[in-house]
Amino acid sequence: MLTRRHAIRLGLTTGAVGAVGAAGGLFQTLTSGGSANAATAAGAPAVTPFAVPLPVPKVLAPYRRTSTADHYAVTMSRTSHQILPGTRTDVLTYNGTFPGPTIRARKGRTAVVRQINALDMPASVHLHGGSNPVEHDGGMMDTIAPGRSRTYVYANDQVGATLWTHDHAHHMESEHVYRGLSGLYLLGDKAEDALGLPSGRYEVPLILRDAQFDAAGQMVYTMDDAENRTTILVNGAPWPYMKVEARKYRFRMLNSCNLRIFILCLNDGSQVTQIGSDGGLLPAPAATPVLVLSPGERADFVVDFSKYAPGTQLTLQNMLGPGPTELVGQIMRFDVGEKTADTSRVPDVLTTLPALPKPTVERSFELRMDEPGTGDKAYINGKTFDAGRIDTHIRWGDTEVWTVTNTSTTIPHNFHTHLVQFRILERDGQPVYPAEAGLKDTVLLFPGQTARLQLTFDTHKGVYPYHCHMIDHSAMGMMAQMKIS
Questions:
Q1: Are the C-beta atoms of residues 276 and 299 closer than 8 Å to each other?
Q2: How far apart are CA 113 and CA 150, in angstroms?
Q3: pTM of the model
Q4: 436 CB contacts (<8 Å, ≥6 apart)?
Q5: Among 61, 81, 148, 399, which lies 20 to 30 A Cα-Cα from 433?
Q6: Which DSSP state fits 14?
Q7: pLDDT at 172 over 70
Q8: Radius of gyration of the chain measured on its C-alpha atoms
Q9: Contact call for residues 177 and 471 (beta carbons, < 8 A)
Q10: What distance in Å separates the CA atoms of residue 360 and residue 399, rounded to the nearest whole number?
Q11: 333 CB neighbour count, 10 Å cutoff
Q12: What is the pLDDT of residue 42?
């Protein structure tokens, strides 16, 4: 597991060390806890790592296409799915798959998605990272009743990015997402197409999450339980392997966990090339030995397997707990095959971000929750969520700087805004490292950390939430509302 010395040996920049919370005591807190016996106390069926191939979520085909729009139908339902070999697990699904199918949308083409709720509880579908009117945002109180349907319309007038859909029904979103209501929404555009990045079967989604299973192979859900969710799943499979050709691959990675933060690296210590984050491509490729992802964050990166001899096996490792290293310390394995022709490339310039406007308003936000053993509430600026309260009034068109601080003593948080992508100006007074230089909608804050964010509110008006995207924390009250008018 990661220590300050390991971080330095990996060649992390000062900013990156800050981003992963390299204060020595903090690492001890986050990486301790759990043992092999504790992790298997429930008697969950044993899983041999790297024994199942990596599945790739199906791409959902539109049932109707017009000159300007693609129409989709999705049904939310309970079903059973084989997650652990030889065992069926009850899950909540979009269209019966775990995770849900991927929607591949295009900038400038409207996506019309009819969501049918065949569950026995309300649900709300939020397009995380999307810039949409309030009525199509999928807010926490704007739910679809059991047996009813709702049509969400996404104009897709933002740049290409790795987005995702998930349930957002307040007080239920944590368990709903944990049990399976999430799926990728990959937005493409012509500018990205022209870059020549790896594509087709060489562009692969990696949806990371964790879970706890009981002796019958059923998922166990307990609010705010990070310690026991020690089975790591990629695209719904436990510790899978992937056969790759000796050439470049583009990976679209999402951390869809409720609470777990990943600090990822290849076991040989080699660098990967990060090309994008939450809101789209970075200005330039960023070579990095680690990928840091808190819940809800995305990383778009390229690995060139051509430098490895056929037969090489590379493990994607995780350097952060909680949980026993033999379980949470490994994610998946890449099995390198023969070298094949590769015309893809990663250009030196990926995109040009717009100039930052001069801000007119500054605000401060404090994230805090009851420490373990002292309570079960979570707060923004000392308040728990109240659907009838507007916490922040914003004038449409304004550019603001928000200083967000995690004042918890031992608990990490992150901060997610609906509607707007932001730019991270600095962390703890220091410039951000290259992987955070692009558009973001979720930012990780370890205890005591502060980040300054710049946001411009020039798209839609209305009431939108902002919250911790460690989803259990938002369900415990770490959520507030802004009104843009």
A1: yes
A2: 8
A3: 0.93
A4: 15, 19, 277, 424, 427, 443
A5: 399
A6: H
A7: yes
A8: 21
A9: yes
A10: 6
A11: 19
A12: 54
At residue 206, φ and ψ (nearest 5 deg) are -130, 105
Q: Calculate mean pLDDT across residues 269-290.
A: 97
Phi-psi region of 126 (alpha: psi -120 to 50; beta: other; left: phi over 0): beta
The torsion defined by the Cα of 194, 199, 200 and 204, in degrees rounded to 10, comes to -140
Residue 345 has which token pair? Answer: 């490339």
Greatest Cα pair distance, the chain, in angstroms, is 60
Residue 353, both tokens: 């971000």
- Residues 305-315: pLDDT tens digits? 999 999 999 99
Identity of residue 29: T
Tell me how far apart the terminal alpha carbons of the chain are, to the nearest angstrom.
47
- What is the layout of strands, in order, in the sheet containing 182-188? 103-106, 182-188, 161-167, 125-128
Task: Report in angstroms the alpha-carbon separations of 221 from 95, 129, 177, 213.
Answer: 22, 26, 11, 9
Instruction: Let me know if 293 is exposed, middle or buried by CB neighbors in 10 A (0-12, 13-18, 19+).
Output: buried
- Contact indicator for 94, 100 with CB cutoff of 8 Å: yes
C-alpha–C-alpha distance, residues 113 and 154, integer Å? 8
Residue at 365: amino acid letter = F
Residue 56 has what pLDDT? 97
CB atoms within 10 A of CB 485: 11
* CA neighbor of 207 nearest in space, from 250, 266, 164: 164
Mean pLDDT of 210-233: 96
Which tokens is 436 given? 């955070």
DSSP assignment of 134-157 equals GGGT--TT-PBPTT-EEEEEE---
Q: Which two tokens stand for residue 255?
A: 């951390």
Question: Does 189 have pLDDT greater than 60?
Answer: yes
- How many CB atoms lie under 10 A from the CB of residue 56? 14
Q: Which helix (H) or strand (E) holds 273?
A: strand 272-277
Task: Compute φ and ψ for 90, nearest 5 degrees.
Answer: -75, 130
As to burial, measured by CB atoms within 10 angstroms (0-12 exposed, 13-18 middle, 19+ buried), residue 473 is buried
**Per-residue model confidence as pLDDT tens digits over 413-427:** 999 999 999 999 999
User: What number is the average pLDDT over the span 19-25?
Assistant: 36
Q: Across-strand partners of 186?
A: 104, 162
Place 128 in a pLDDT band, splitting at 50, 70 and 90. Answer: very high
Report strand pairing: 313-318 vs 330-339.
antiparallel
- Number of Cα atoms under 13 Å in the Cβ half of residue 335: 10
Query: Which amino acid, one-letter code, is at 44?
Result: A
Alpha helices (runs of H) in 307-418, residue ranges in sequence order: 325-328
Instruction: Please count the CA atoms within 13 angstroms of the CA of 223 that sit on its side-chain side.
Output: 15
Q: Which residue has the tokens 């007074």?
A: 429
